[in-house]
Amino acid sequence: MAAIQVNRLNKTFGGTNRALKDINLTIQPGEMVALIGASGSGKSTLIRHIAGLIPADRGDAGGEVLVHGDAIQAQGRISPDARKVRVGIGVVFQQFNLVERLSVLTNVLTGLLGQISGFRAFFGLFIKSEKQLALKALDRVGIAHTAGQRASTLSGGQQQRAAIARALVQGAAVILADEPIASLDPASSKRVMDALAQINAEDARTVVVSLHQVDYALKYCPRVVALRAGAVVYDGASADVTPDILRDLYGDECEELMGLEDQAASGAGATTHVTADGDLVVAAG
């Protein structure tokens, strides 16, 4: 059974702006997949549809999103059981979505709110074993020492890792990360992507991450799904992504993103590969 199944998904904003166009996508359990594409290509919109945060266009067929076989939406309507399905989906946003006045530990524990009683959730009452679980999750992402701090005292990279720890505590089998490193410096970006990759490798959790940074996508994700103007234009191995594909996606911006200005790789036979150290190499055929 697929971890994520998207069938004939369409989304239109304002009656004329086609944000997603007949998206069909299957992601298997334990995959780590990058969504790439220029700004406005539909990456974040697709993430939000998979999470069941917004409905697709209404229609007689299509618009279906299944997570481990359970429908989160279909035919332009969010499923009545979407709340139960979302328990298995952890979403990591670009803006971190932490409550800054609360401690880091409490923010991570909010990952349990959909699984404990309404009384305990309202008053923020967590038992010892739950706090131990949260501390273990913080330790896994390398920031256990910040547990007692207010979330507002953390750096951007630390806040993003706290958000990942929250998804771990939630027990999410699917983690959706929407531009998680867009506002981070390179060192922090590496730590966040390392954390996601470790969780994918060690826990076999399905990770889908939208990235504007192509080099990170190719380094960390074995599979790439590329969007352009709301449509899937490439779905395959990262190792097979060529400079021509990237130029088709990003246009002139590709030169800056990939450092291709002086490469002769735009001709036929150009290839890309990632070294053992994780560096992207572009070579002419």
CATH topology of the largest domain: the name is Rossmann fold
Q: Tell me, what's the shape?
A: globular
- Radius of gyration, rounded? 19 Å
Which range does the strand content fall in?
A: 25-35%
Q: Work out the helix count.
A: 10
What is the name of the CATH superfamily of the largest domain? P-loop containing nucleotide triphosphate hydrolases
Distance between the termini: 39 Å
**What integer is the average pLDDT?**
87
CATH architecture of the largest domain: 3-Layer(aba) Sandwich
Low-confidence stretches: 259-285
Overall number of structural domains: 2
**Biggest beta sheet attributes:** 6 strands, mixed
Strand arrangement in the largest pleated sheet: 7-8-9-3-10-11
Element-level helix/strand string: EEEHEEEHEHHHHEHEHEEHHEE
Approximate helicity band: 25-40%
- Determine the structural class based on helices, strands and strand pairing: alpha/beta
Question: What is the highest CATH level, the class of the largest domain?
Answer: Alpha Beta
The number of strands is 13
